[in-house]
Amino acid sequence: MKRIYLDYAATTPTHPEVIKAMLPYFNDVFGNPSGIYSYGQESKQALAEARDMVAALIGADSEEAVFTSGGTEADNFAIKGMAFANENKGDHVITSSIEHHAVIETCKFLERKGFRITYLPVDEYGFVDPGDVKKAITNKTILISVMHANNEVGTIEPIAEIGKIAKEGGIYFHTDAVQTVGHLRLDVKELGVDLLSMSAHKLYGPKGIGALYIRKGIELVSFVHGGEQERKLRAGTENVPGIVGFGRAAELAQQGMREEAQRLTYLRDKLIKGILERIDNTHLNGHPLRRLPNNVNVSVDFVEGESMLLNLDLEGICASTGSACSSSSLEPSHVLLAMGLSHEQALTSLRLTLGKWTTQEEIEQVLDVLSRVVANLRGMSPFLKSNR
Ligand code: PLP
Q1: How far is ligand 1, taken at its centre, from the CA of residue 104, in Å?
Q2: Residues near 180 by beta carbon (within 8 Å), at least 6 away in sequence
Q3: Quick check: helix, strand or coil at residue 48?
Q4: Ligand 1 pocket, residue 242 CB under 6 Å
Q5: Same domain assignment for residues 137 and 180
Q6: Cβ(81) – ligand 1 distance below 6 Å
Q7: How close is the Cα of 100 to the center of ligand 1, in Å?
């Protein structure tokens, strides 16, 4: 059975060109970039070129990009690094209630260390109101962290507006742009951010490599101590093949980005329309327009997201839901709850995220299969029967 992959927001396949670029750095050019012999210097040169490409993707200077092990580490580094570097100035951090766990859990850690965190609410589409950011600022606020686009519902946040507010208040501003870098044109200066998190495996690069943009002049506390790599900000021998792969992925992402976004938007809207028209009692989660070009998130009344996933998987379709399995029960997505969905509604969500290799035929096939799967599950649902 040919599988249909619609979980590109979780991870993307590594682009063949990226693999090709990485391969020599496993054996031919394997030197430690800290080595002064030519092998080491060749690796060092490759790191520099990759850094240029990653920085260029977000309109930054090369020395403003620090490589990390991925988006999670970049978020941890930004938030803890800024909090501990500025604890003599204040103890208050503002974030949103729909952030990725990498941000939410980092903020909870800071709370345990005595910091105060404001988790801003969102509206029914998942938007953070810049006015709420302004109101939440106190003379103890040291950092604002709001994601560029939400990974579950695709809502694109008003980052440039929040950036202006942060600047006016003299407060540092971090954004988790893991879902947008390489997919939407973005420029750190236009966004007005001081720190920005990226992850290679969301843009057809390898897993386990990411970067944090740190605006020139910003000082933050490092939490990986050891050697002097990454300007002493992130110790440890660099993941040279990973970084080279990230660089190549960044370069490829620049080529035809707008056309790809248009193609995906067309397929996304076709899929949304098809679901809402062909399957009754379905609702779109997130904003119809101000959303990631590849994100479809729907609630399908009376059907548990997990059941849909398992049934779609049997048909070779890979999808996702926002809920997380814990040992005894299903936890609904914190994002959907924050958007005002009930516990039950939040458990009926299905996320389908499209990518480079998604075709129109696949979308049509998914619509057929999903209609059938939902009809079968609803036919079996005691919940639905009791509601009729
Ligand atoms: N932030 C967002 C918005 C994400 O979607 C993800 C990955 O799902 C992460 C952070 C974590 O990135 P990584 O998997 O590279 O640690």
Answers
A1: 12
A2: 148, 149, 156, 186, 292
A3: helix
A4: no
A5: yes
A6: no
A7: 7
**Is 250 found in the same domain as 263?**
no
102 touches ligand 1 (CB under 6 Å): yes
Whether the model clears a pTM of 0.90, i.e. scores above it, the answer is yes
Ligand 1 pocket member 282 (CB < 6 A): no
- Run means of pLDDT, 10 residues per run, the chain, 388 residues: 94 98 96 92 97 98 98 98 98 98 98 98 98 98 98 98 98 98 98 98 98 97 95 96 98 96 98 98 97 98 95 97 66 96 95 98 98 95 56
**Co-location of 286 and 241 in the same domain:** no
**Residue 363: which CATH number?**
3.90.1150.10
The size of the chain, in residues, is 388
- Same structural domain for residues 142 and 290? no
Coil, helix or strand at residue 278: helix
Distance 388 CA to ligand 1 centre (A): 40
Q: Whose CA is nearest to atom 12 of ligand 1?
A: 71
Helices (H) and strands (E) in the chain, counts: 14, 14
Is the shortest distance between the CB of 147 and ligand 1 below 6 Å?
yes
Q: Does some domain include residue 388?
A: no
Task: Specify the number of domains making up the chain.
Answer: 2
**For helices 257-278 and 360-380, what crossing angle results, to 10°?**
30
Residue 199 CA, ligand 1 centroid: distance in Å: 7
Name the residues annotated as catalytic: 325
